[in-house]
């Protein structure tokens, strides 16, 4: 299967793994000359908080989730790495439940691969469904690559 579109979905917990996420998506996208859809999914509360932190007017017609996502530090760090690697990308922002919204985005952009970050979970945590990464792994319309932070990987 040829990769044409890779969805790299980030959220509020991914600030500590931007380098790992960027490296993973570059390794997958570069050989295939694939386009990356770099998406930040916000819950409504997270979105409102980011608007406030960026001093953006929530009532303005100019404020859209794509614009808010493009100004978010996690997205900007990954954009810089993708630019350095010569990877084509589009930035998307969306508001909703993290897991189901990522799956909807993957379907909507006809992603051939989804890349998401996640944390090490305790044995009890593994038995309980509900994490974003787990929902994406179980519901994605295409293969999913799960990326842990270097700190989590070092604990193995």
TrEMBL record:
Ranges where the UspA domain occurs: 4-148
Top-level taxon of origin: Archaea
InterPro entries assigned: Rossmann-like_a/b/a_fold, Universal_stress_UspA, UspA
Similarity remark: Belongs to the universal stress protein A family.
Record-linked PANTHER family: STRESS RESPONSE PROTEIN NHAX, UNIVERSAL STRESS PROTEIN UP12
Protein known as: Universal stress protein UspA-like protein
Organism this protein belongs to: Natronococcus occultus SP4
Lineage: Archaea, Methanobacteriati, Methanobacteriota, Stenosarchaea group, Halobacteria
